[in-house]
Amino acid sequence: MKIVETDLQGVFILEPIVFSDSRGWFMESFKKSIFEKIGINVEFIQYNHSFSLKKGTLRGIHFQNNPFSQAKLVRCVRGKILDVVVDLRKNSPTYKKWIACELSDENKIQIFIPKGFGHGFVTLEDNVEVEYKVDNYYSKEHDRSIRYDDPEIGIEWGIDNPILSDKDRNAPFLRDSDCNFIYEGE
Predict the structure, then answer these.
(1) pLDDT (tens digit, 9 = 90+) per residue, 119-163?
(2) What pLDDT is recorded for position 182?
(3) Of residues 47, 49, 62, 119, which has the active-site annotation?
(4) CATH number of 15's domain
(5) Structural domain includes residue 138
(6) Is residue 183 assigned to a domain?
(7) Residue 62 a catalytic site member
(8) Whether this model's pTM surpasses 0.90
């Protein structure tokens, strides 16, 4: 597995080695020892799977406040998405900065998102499925969203009229949210 560092400290793109033959293909989608080599000691305890029917469905920007924040390992198992990660840690050198990466069933790329970051994606095709592992259980009380179009963050989604849930349509801007992530240095 090839590990690619991003401009956001602790966020990694993982490019698997895929073994193909006439029967199909095989790959390792997670290997704890590889994560440990790059300093990530995480135990995934919940696996989530979403399905989006239509191209242009936007989910995010989502996170859970402390003490129920979550690290995530995200992959697109059917179709194609633009996956976005934004640094929400106050006082971080990359606070409000974001990166985007295309994840698809064809490229099999995954993205690791540590605690303290927001996450979202927009579907680039119809009938998209996304799976992600998390290291903390879902907590409705700590579940949060910020606006996908927050001008202080300026994410370029490549879409004008996304399909949104009520939760995402009514999410606050970051400045109005109660996001409680604080950067604690390296």
Answers:
(1) 999 999 999 999 999 999 999 999 999 999 999 999 999 999 999
(2) 97
(3) 62
(4) 2.60.120.10
(5) yes
(6) no
(7) yes
(8) yes
Q: How many domains does the chain have?
A: 1
In a domain, 29, yes or no: yes
Tell me how many degrees the CA angle 95-80-124 measures, rounded to the nearest 5: 80
27 in any annotated domain: yes
Q: Kindly name the residue from 95, 132, 148, 183 that is annotated as catalytic.
A: 132
Q: Judge whether 148 counts as a catalytic residue.
A: no
Interatomic CA distance for residues 30 and 11, integer angstroms: 15
Range of the domain at 105: 2-176
CB 156 within 8 A of CB 74: no
